[in-house]
UniProtKB/TrEMBL annotation:
PROSITE patterns with a match to the protein in the record: SAM_OMT_II (PS51683)
Function comment: Catalyzes the transfer of a methyl group onto N-acetylserotonin, producing melatonin (N-acetyl-5-methoxytryptamine).
Listed PANTHER family: O-METHYLTRANSFERASE CICE, PUTATIVE (AFU_ORTHOLOGUE AFUA_4G14580)-RELATED
Enzyme type, top EC level: transferase
Name of the coding gene: ASMT
Protein known as: Acetylserotonin O-methyltransferase
Pfam family, one: Dimerisation
GO molecular function, one term: acetylserotonin O-methyltransferase activity
Highest taxon, organism lineage: Eukaryota
Keywords: Melatonin biosynthesis, Methyltransferase, S-adenosyl-L-methionine, Transferase
Example of a GO biological process term: melatonin biosynthetic process
Amino acid sequence: MSSAKELNYPHILIQYQNGFLVSKVMFTACELGVFDLLQESKEKLSSKAIAECLRSGLPGMERLLDACVGLKLLEVDVSKEGAFYCNTEISEQFLTKSSPKSQYHTCMYYSKTIYPCWQYLTEAVREGKNQYERAFGISSKAVFEALYRSEEEMLKFMYGLNAIWSLCGRDVIAAFDLSPFTMICDLGGGAGALAQECVSLYPDCTVTIFDLPKVIQTAKKHFVSLEKHQINFYEGDFFKDPLPEAELYILARILHDWSDENCVQLLTKVQKSCKTGGGVLLIETLLNEDKRGPLESQLYSLNMLVHTEGKERSPAEYSKLLTASGFKEIEIKKSGKLYDAILGRK
Ligand code: SAM
């Protein structure tokens, strides 16, 4: 017979089972525009008013709003006239579209792209490869062709990835004193949030954002003001085309997309293009050396499995890749936030 202790269903299991329900409540409230409406309205709104404005049925909206209250994403005042809702500080700052620290686009990317892929985590673990084919019916051989399968998907990806740097971009760019480097190239710089952080912290530098041609065109159109004269653009494929000369190459969330072989191939090319005395700055989430944490990095590493050809790595693993590519004097700075910085010298 089981003991009473064993029969007590552990609370932690209930939390884990419900983890994705919690995510979906937040994503759905974002997608329907609940937080934006409450921000714009400036006064508390009833569930009926919210449902009407957002063209949603009332019973479902009432449940969604109350679940958001349970998650501390909304506050409610209940009086004789009914229940009236407003944003909490968290949703106002991070989930409304217009906030400078908005994570709205990240939530949308998680909801529409990451979530469907994670339905095939079992297959990803069994097969050791990404699940684009099962989730979206597209070949997964060329990861970024699959990721950028339409302009809409590419924009979603770029907005989604850019958002995190409004929270911790300054920390990673300030982790080392980069002021000696005046010619910087942000390889795979995407929508340019880190390049903008760089020129604002180091006014004497110029940053060239290098990325695939359609990403560069989208960055110019939607993300980076062309009046920022310290920022240049360079279209190319970093595996096939020559790299622009620079004193420092930033690779933020690049190596985690690729196998060790591809990483060494790319870093060797970077090392050859780098000016003497220059270096490379890797910005990645770091696993502990024993791989037993942090949990976020472990989860992100599984995310890389379902989505890419890469994985998250420990500081020693990144040092090994850098050393194999000819970099020396490798230093690691943990930012205490989601992403950390590793500097290697030529
Ligand atoms: N560095 C940005 C950041 O941290 O927000 C974006 C990181 S994203 C995970 C990877 C970036 O690498 C994308 O912008 C993608 O377009 C770019 N990329 C992928 N393959 C590339 C290639 N072969 N040549 C140039 N850029 C590439």
